[in-house]
Specification:
The chain starts with 6 loop residues before the first strand and ends with a strand. Among the domains are: 388-487, Immunoglobulin-like (Sandwich), CATH 2.60.40.1220; 493-645, Jelly Rolls, CATH 2.60.120.1060; 660-678 and 691-707 and 715-752, no CATH class; 761-874, NPCBM/NEW2 domain (Jelly Rolls); 882-978, Immunoglobulin-like, CATH 2.60.40; 980-1057, Immunoglobulin-like. Residues 519-523 and 691-697 have low confidence and may be disordered. The radius of gyration is 34 Å and the shape is globular. It contains 4 helices and 84 strands. It is mainly beta. The strands form 20 sheets. Strands 36, 38, 41, 43, 46 and 48 form a 6-stranded antiparallel β-sheet that branches. Strands 57, 59, 60, 62, 65 and 67 form a 6-stranded antiparallel β-sheet that branches. InterPro entries: 6-blade_b-propeller_TolB-like, Cu-Rt/internalin_Ig-like, Galactose-bd-like_sf, Glc/Sorbosone_DH, Glyco_hyd_98_carb-bd, NPCBM_sf, Quinoprot_gluc/sorb_DH_b-prop, SbsA_Ig. This is Glycosyl hydrolase family 98 putative carbohydrate-binding module domain-containing protein. It comes from Rhodosorus marinus.
Length: 1058
């Protein structure tokens, strides 16, 4: 799954692995069905959640007894005290009820945290601590994990709510049983303490003390139930020394802040409580299954037992553990004394995992906040031999740089001892002379990199030879693999390999080469990373930062990816600006500066500028007033000069096929003029629905693959497309070739899918209800699914869905003469049998495509006509209930009242009563993408009315009606589009940043607005060294102006700068 923003947790609707909820830090919860993200949020509490820094919605959970208890549980920091993210806050643990359709949750019931406190926070005030308050004084270590045991008892992890390096009166609350913070608590579905809790006494089920299960915890970030030990497993984020996996046995005090992992925390020895622990007066510590120090990992964020039968005996009942900053998942074997042996590698480079769970299908799942996806890990014994699945540069590539780093990706995990100079060689093609190269293994991608120890020769042919590779099961590669390439005259020089003439940083620590800053008490130096992609080379900076280097001889261009690094201290979005300046004989010139600020949620920017002729080049990282130092951690990924006679040719899209009559599951092939860099091309490729001329709809999920030569790109929709629908395939200029040259021009193609099939599901005529039989005495059902009709008779039937044809056999009996059966619709005859006499049988087939009703009429002289094998051939799904909407307007304007109605039928033609109908009105809000707002629900009715609001930005309306026939639920939808006006904002000179409502960018900018909607256009007050002066059409209007159009049509506004 994918398409989220800072996802932190997930869970399944019990018993159904196909339905999964995904919880975002900001308070938005999504539902994905069969891997497809539903358009309507499952729950949206963004207006309640404080999500800055280490705060937000940190845990979500579906009740284990969902059929009887259809609840969703959440744990989050709220904003009841203040909307200032730096102020003390409080928290809430609550439940919501999931609707019968299992599409949304609503109706919050607070289980813990009903009370709040003043703006000064809780501090160490014991009288406050005893209240039903979750105290989040600091913006770190607030809420943690949620889990539930099979008995329906809810375990809640809460951090100490204290500032990490300060040992004041906040951290010690973790060992005080009257406070909820720094604990794992056990509560029932109504928020009362679990029966049998270690400190629950008598009839006291409401006090904080009664709810405590474990104490002495700094940050129980994840809590998952262990079916083997039958206790919660706790992934405990430590301070400066250790991360821990605890078995949450009843009543155990883990000792924080007095203890960290297996050792005493000397910084906390001033507390009386810690002295009591040291003297043995208070029992604390123990219960750890694994403590690992910060050379091994620095932020444990997930723990799960592999208890299902999907795992082999060698792995079953091991515990999976993930670490956020080191991006690994490891397996440990434990007994009552803790870890046995050494941890085993399961996966590496998993890009910031923040939750691990074993799914209902028995496989292991994890969610990555960096990749913003959910991944499944399943065990499958692969008996195939290892092969080379990808080469970089591709086979037979030409004009390859002499500084190339050769990448060899294998089809499966291989034994590292088979990676050696004998099995992997780079040699000259003409004489097979070996090139001395360093071999580097990247386990996460199954890739071996060859790094030549000296520059390759210009205009020379080389060949990579691979043989003797053995996989992890001992299977040996068959034969050998060769991949030739030829160098050109170009080469690259990484900025991090050059001497700095100047290097200043926003903190005391220096600018890092090929590593990233990570500010914490933990001495961590993670790799450079932008939106899940790690960079081997580059610069790690903290704004304000300036790095200046001398431009090497022969270097002409600078290329780099830039952005706010993934591995910042906090999750909140930083705001940064990146600038490149060149200094030469004529002074300093700005070569690049991003037009708008970059945040952590924005994709990486790609810089490609000409630096030829300058003496020095400077790389500047700046922050805005909004972004503090902790959020101004920037990465210059793969920052390099391109030098010599390197490849300058811009790649082109040669062909896209098919573009018409495309199957809903069909792959689309794109052919490029030369090998493409895979990552940038994938990121620049989208398939989306057009909303209106000039605007685009929501992206369609796709899977993209390349051939070995990287010249063919295959695009396959993640879910079937809609029939008879036009899509737009876009490949932006961010797509680059192997030399970093951008696509020559943005490419767009209209992709039209074929019309829906009208066959595949047969529905017999005798299954349907006859309507309006005229006369009734001449019509009856016969034996074995037949119908018997006497002349003259007419019978009406409702066509059961989207049907292509209707066919039947007609026989004449009892002396019938010249009997004729006709099938008509809307007064037009569709087909007929012609004359049929006694003893004859005729086969009749009609085209009924697009018809809602048909009328069968029999004429003749006496006798009896028997219809057999009478059936409609219809599209799949035609047995579902369907509805017919009444008249809806073709277009609407803001403020218009739109009334809707529908009649619903089961496939037999029986009308479904209004008590079995539900109407849903959705506002589909679009600008750069689309999302849905559920505006109105009407039940037990045959229709309703809705007033089109002034929502801002482009939107359209979708009216849905759901009908339930007792066996199946069908949905029919109709969309109504708005009257619109196209607004174009230009500037003189061009290029200044302008906006139309929420859409902004350099001029000229075009947007679509709704008729009778109020909206704003704006021009930036400054554009370089120029200032905004006036609008051409009205010189008295300010830079920000409000407009309203009463009629559709194009409009143009020009801002003048001087």
């Amino acid at each position: 799954g994918e398409g989220f923003r800072s996802p932190l947790d997930f869970d399944w609707i019990p018993g159904n692995v196909d339905r999964i909820i995904i919880c975002e830090k900001r308070g938005l919860i999504h539902l994905a069905v069969n891997g497809v993200l539903q358009s309507t949020p499952f729950l949206d509490i963004q207006n309640k959640v404080m999500s800055d820094s280490g705060r937000g919605l940190m845990g979500c959970l579906i009740d284990v007894d969902f059929k009887k208890q259809p609840y969703l549980y959440v744990s989050y920091t709220d904003d009841r005290i203040s909307d200032n993210p730096n102020d003390p806050q409080t928290g809430i643990v609550s439940r919501f009820k999931v609707n019968a359709q299992v599409t949304q949750a609503s109706g919050e019931v607070i289980l813990m945290g009903k009370s709040t406190t003043g703006k000064k926070g809780c501090g160490g005030n014991e009288s406050i601590g005893k209240k039903d308050i979750i105290c989040n004084d600091a913006n770190m270590h607030n809420h943690g994990g949620l889990t539930m045991n099979p008995d329906g008892e809810l375990f809640v992890g809460l951090g100490d709510g204290a500032d990490p390096p300060v040992f004041d009166d906040l951290p010690i609350r973790a060992v005080d049983l009257d406070w909820t913070v720094g604990k794992v608590l056990c509560i029932q579905r109504d928020g009362k303490a679990c029966k049998g809790n270690p400190f629950q006494k008598g009839n006291d089920f409401k006090s904080n003390r009664a709810k405590v299960w474990n104490s002495g915890l700094r940050n129980p970030f994840r809590v998952n139930w262990d079916p083997v030990l039958k206790v919660p497993l706790i992934a405990h984020v430590g301070f400066a020394s250790f991360e821990s996996i605890f078995a949450g046995t009843k009543g155990r005090n883990f000792g924080w802040p007095c203890l960290e992992g297996p050792k005493t925390n000397l910084k906390a020895n001033n507390y009386k409580e810690c002295k009591d622990i040291a003297r043995g007066k208070t029992k604390a510590g123990g219960g750890s299954l694994w403590d690992y120090d910060h050379d091994f990992g620095t932020s444990v964020t997930g723990v799960a037992r592999l208890s299902s039968n999907k795992w082999p005996n060698s792995l079953k009942n091991m515990i999976a553990v993930c670490d956020y900053t080191k991006s690994w998942i490891k397996l440990i074997k434990t007994n009552k004394n803790g870890i046995q042996g050494k941890p085993e590698d399961l996966m590496s480079d998993v890009l910031g995992p923040v939750q691990l769970k074993q799914g209902p299908d028995g496989h292991l799942y994890y969610i990555s906040i960096i990749a913003q996806k959910i991944f499944r890990i399943r065990y499958q014994l692969d008996k195939s031999r290892p092969t080379v699945s990808r080469m970089s540069p591709p086979q037979k590539a030409s004009n390859v740089e002499t500084t190339v780093r050769v990448g060899i990706t294998f089809s499966k995990k291989i034994k590292t001892n088979s990676i050696n100079a004998k099995n992997i060689k780079l040699q000259l093609s003409n004489n097979k002379k070996l090139v001395n190269a360093k071999l580097v293994w990247e386990a996460g991608t199954n890739t071996v990199y060859m790094e030549p120890r000296s520059t390759l020769k210009k205009d020379t042919s080389y060949v990579v030879v691979v043989s003797g590779i053995v996989d992890s099961q001992g299977r040996k590669m068959k034969g050998s693999f060769t991949s030739p390439f030829k160098t050109g005259g170009g080469f690259s020089l990484y900025i991090s390999d050059l001497k700095f003439q100047k290097a200043t940083n926003g903190i005391k620590a220096p600018v890092l080469r090929d590593k990233q800053q990570f500010q914490s008490a933990q001495n961590v130096v993670p790799p450079l990373s932008l939106r899940g992609e790690t960079f081997r080379k580059g610069l790690g900076t903290v704004a304000e930062s300036v790095v200046t280097v001398k431009l090497p001889a022969g270097c002409k261009r600078f290329q780099s990816y830039v952005g706010v690094d993934d591995f910042r201290r906090n999750f909140e979005s930083g705001e940064m600006i990146f600038t490149v300046e060149g200094k030469g004989k004529k002074g300093t010139e700005r070569l690049y500066r991003n037009n708008k600020v970059v945040t952590k949620t924005d994709p990486a920017l790609y810089i490609d500028v000409d630096v030829g002729g300058f003496q020095t080049v400077s790389f500047i990282s700046s922050k805005t007033k909004k972004g503090g130092t902790a959020s101004a951690v920037g990465t210059w990924g793969d920052a390099q000069f391109r030098c010599g006679s390197y490849d300058k040719a811009e790649p082109k899209v040669v062909k896209i096929t098919p573009v018409s009559n495309v199957g809903v599951n069909q792959e689309i092939i794109v052919l490029f003029s030369e090998p493409m860099e895979i990552q940038s091309t994938i990121e620049s490729t989208t398939l989306h629905l057009p909303v209106e001329s000039g605007g685009y709809g929501y992206d369609i999920g796709v899977q993209i693959e390349f051939n070995n030569k990287q010249t063919f790109m295959t695009i396959k929709p993640s879910a079937p497309l809609s029939f008879n629908t036009e899509y737009v395939l876009s490949i932006g200029k961010g797509a680059t070739d192997l030399s970093g040259n951008s696509l020559k021009s943005r490419t767009e193609r209209r992709i039209k899918t074929r019309k829906e099939g009208t066959a595949g599901q047969k529905i017999g005529l005798t299954e349907l209800n006859a309507k309006n039989v005229r006369p009734q005495r001449n019509f009856s059902k016969g034996a074995k699914d037949t119908l018997e009709l006497k002349p003259d008779v007419s019978v009406d039937y409702l066509v059961p869905g989207n049907c292509g044809s209707f066919s039947f056999d007609m026989s004449a009996k009892q002396g019938g003469k010249n009997m004729r059966m006709t099938v008509a619709a809307d007064g037009k005859v569709l087909c007929g049998s012609g004359p049929v006499n006694a003893g004859q049988t005729k086969r009749v087939k009609c085209d009924v495509l697009g018809q809602n009703d048909v009328t069968l009429t029999l004429d003749g002289n006496g006798g009896l006509a028997v219809l057999s094998n009478a059936e409609f051939n219809c599209a799949q799904g035609s047995r579902l209930p369907r509805c017919e909407f009444g008249k809806l307007p073709n277009k609407f304007v803001v403020g218009q009242k739109i009334c809707y109605s529908a009649k619903c039928y089961d496939f037999k033609g029986n009308q479904i009563p209004k008590k079995k109908m539900l109407f849903l009105t959705q506002l589909v809000h679009c600008q750069k993408d689309c999302h849905f707002h559920e505006e109105q629900t009407v039940e037990n009715a045959t229709g309703g009315c809705y007033k089109a609001p002034d929502h801002g930005d482009y939107y359209y309306l979708e009216f849905q009606v759901f009908a339930d026939d007792g066996k199946n639920t069908g949905m029919t939808a109709r969309q109504v589009r708005p009257e619109t006006a196209a607004v174009t904002v230009t500037t003189m000179p061009p290029g200044a940043v302008v906006g139309v409502d929420s859409l902004s960018g350099p001029s000229p900018l075009r947007s679509i607005v709704l008729v009778k909607a109020r909206f704003t256009i704006n021009a930036s007050k400054n554009a370089g060294n120029r200032r905004f002066r006036f609008w051409d059409d009205n010189k008295k209007q300010p830079a920000d102006r409000e407009l309203l159009f009463n009629k559709p049509g194009p409009r143009k506004y020009n801002a003048v700068y001087k």
